[in-house]
Amino acid sequence: xxxxxxxxxxxxxxxxxxxxxxxDVDPVIISQLCDAVQWAPNxxxxxxxxxVVIRGESRARLGNTIADxxxxxxxxxxxxxxxxxxYMRSPVVxxxxxxxxxxDSRTRENTFAVAAGLQNMLLLAHQHGLACLxxxxxxxxxxAIAQLCGFENDSIVMGLVYVGWPTGAVDTVHxxxxxxxxxx
Length: 184
What we know:
Elements: H1 3-12, H2 27-38, E1 49-54, H3 58-72, H4 77-86, E2 92-98, H5 104-127, E3 131-135, H6 142-149, E4 156-164
Antiparallel strand pairs: 1-2, 2-4, 3-4
Helix pairs in contact: 2-5, 3-4
């Protein structure tokens, strides 16, 4: 693969929820996606990524767990109801968390490593022809999600990644040119 090929892959990857919820994704592919997370830069080699693959009826349990937290916080009833079913929109949801570090600085480094790993996952999914969307956890639901997934109590849930086969294409979003400064 040339640098131009990689550049084109990066520029063509799109977040999408246009996913066929009834078409499963091969577990071998899911395993590759999870493995890609571990290959992100991790300066102190703490290997902070924590991943759980959620399929089947467990997706509804995830939705109910998050919705219960939202309801307890007084969130809008329509949002709570939507959350109860939204994880059924794709055949696979990968929950990603970061382990905390032994210092605040190490915790930040760990979250950066997992974020970089999630980008690896999204790019590999794109190359497999999959549609993905990296969603943020609901405010206040971190601990409930971590408990459901069996993560350490102090894990930082960084995302819920919807994964599935696309039912359509999404438009390219205009992005501004990056602002770059050079110091000599």
